[in-house]
Amino acid sequence: MKATHLEQIGVCIVRLETQTENLLIAVTARRDVARNLHGASDDRPRYFTNPDDALAVIAGFLNSFRNPDRE
Question: Please, are residues 23 and 49 in contact by the beta-carbon 8 Å criterion?
């Protein structure tokens, strides 16, 4: 297995709940899991009902690894 720089480990959790008229999408993203493993679950989720809005946040999270200066 290839060695990984710990400072570049992140996690993004997407949780879906069906509601009467729409979906509730919860996105929790953390870029610096390796720096603070015990606090990795302290971030509060962001909630969306529009999938495009949730996908924009997820894409921003993914792109932040290409451009580490942007979070």
Answer: yes
Rg (Cα) of the chain, in Å, rounded? 14
Average pLDDT, consecutive stretches of 10 residues, N- to C-terminus, the chain (71 residues): 62 93 93 64 84 96 75 51
- Paired residues of 25 in beta bridges: 16, 48
Sheet with 11-18: list strands edge to edge: 11-18, 23-30, 46-48
22 Cβ partners below 8 Å, 6+ apart?
49
Alpha-carbon span 46 to 26, nearest angstrom = 6
Does the pTM of the predicted model rise above 0.90? no
Long-range interactions of 50-56: CB distance < 8 A, separation 24+: 51/23, 51/25, 54/14, 54/25, 54/27
